[in-house]
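Incident log entry.

Two folding requests arrived from the same account within the same minute. Monitoring flagged them as a possible duplicate submission, but the sequences differ. Recording both here for audit purposes.

Request one:
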Amino acid sequence: MRFCLLDVNGQIHTQLHQSYPFTAAAGTTEHEQDPHLWWQCFEKLLQQLATRVKLQDIQSLAVDGTSGTLIALSRQGQPLHAAIMYNDARALAQSHLIQTVCPDDFAFAVPESALAKLLWYQQHYSSTDITAFLSQSDWLLYQFTGGKLYSDPNNALKMGYDAVAMQWPDWMDALQIPFHKLPQIIPTGKPLPTTASGLVQYGFSADLMVVSGTTDSTAAIYASGAHHPGDAISSLGSTLVAKAIHHHAISAPDYGIYSQPYQGMWLIGGGSNTGGAVLKALFSSQEIEQYSRQLNPQRLLNLHYYPLLHAGERFPVSSPTFTGNMQPQPASRSAFFQAILEGIADVEKQAYDCLERFGVTPVKRVISMGRGALNPGWQAIREQKLACPCPPAAQTEAAYGMALLAYKALQ
């Protein structure tokens, strides 16, 4: 968990972080965490923060969390079961049920979606035992507001929310969804219509504004400074996430494309299974560091790799059987390393070309995030492939993005 506090001029005043125990997976496809760990961690960070600033002077607050993580609350307002995490895939049968009733352009008829997990909860617990369904950050808001149910459009997307029509869609009726147990959706960046009564006991002012937040990945994009059509954001982590800003929403599940609300516009794109995980599987940390220094962007190998470790791809190809390609393999390990980086850049290029075919504003700048954004040789390779600047983001912390969101709500 991370905190970021901005001063009255919008500059970073304090940054804090605190680790909490990672709950072991319940099975090969099941991943859970105890939500109480998050609150205990929050309290520890508050104690640290209180040594640096008077909590009563803080004017606004916003929170982000992982989308797709879902909690069911008991009649006592406590988690009925451990939080089912964003990467938990137990709800396979429930995802198939969603596919029988959802429209073709619904992008989250998958086991990892919060909607599939909601159906799993309903099939394993009595409806009278469950009073509400909340995402990770929604549960924190529940504590902040003394038991009110709020969420934002981005976190609610994977629970089925229609961010274009700004409502829970009618087709969810066929799934017997208890809409009265779902949170009220407040647009990202808007104050919640309630006080932060749950935080007064910690020393916060009763006038503290709680601002509707977003998902962790979108919070990082707020931090990056991307703000108008023509800007795109590539996250170069274990996987490659590529999203571009556009005036209106576009959905193409056959290509893994979905849309998220963003500052009055939309983030269009998706996530590929290529990325840094391929490098870590094939090269040691020492090799990655050594071969990064040996990259030669002036002499591209152009072997046209599509680097994947396993069958299955999400975007810009959406197929569970797609196998990619990392052949032919050069004799030199350093050349093989460069060929893979070029291949990831080729996939990135395909991703933005795919978005442009669906009408997304052509990309003029790709703001780069993640550890891969710190590799200057790879940046030079990507700038050649994408034919546009690919500068590293000045700020990448999701916590900073949320602090900025809370700050702007005061303006």
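Request two (distinct sequence, not a duplicate):
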Amino acid sequence: MPLYEYRCASCGERFELLRSLAHADDVVCHRCHSRDVKRLLSVFAVRAGATSRAGASTGEGVSSSGGGCCGGSCGCCGH
């Protein structure tokens, strides 16, 4: 089951929930109980080509076009 991040439009609370895709948008804020909750887009990195533990620790095979928020140009993923 995927982990989704949400923000309540009523009270501003940000929280995460494990939800199935079928119920990903059927969420109530746990703080104020509002149904005005929006699912946020999450940033994720894709590792491509790493075939061993050693390759993963040295950064070999890390995609330079799909890592982090900008493909590596901001420095967030060590490029």
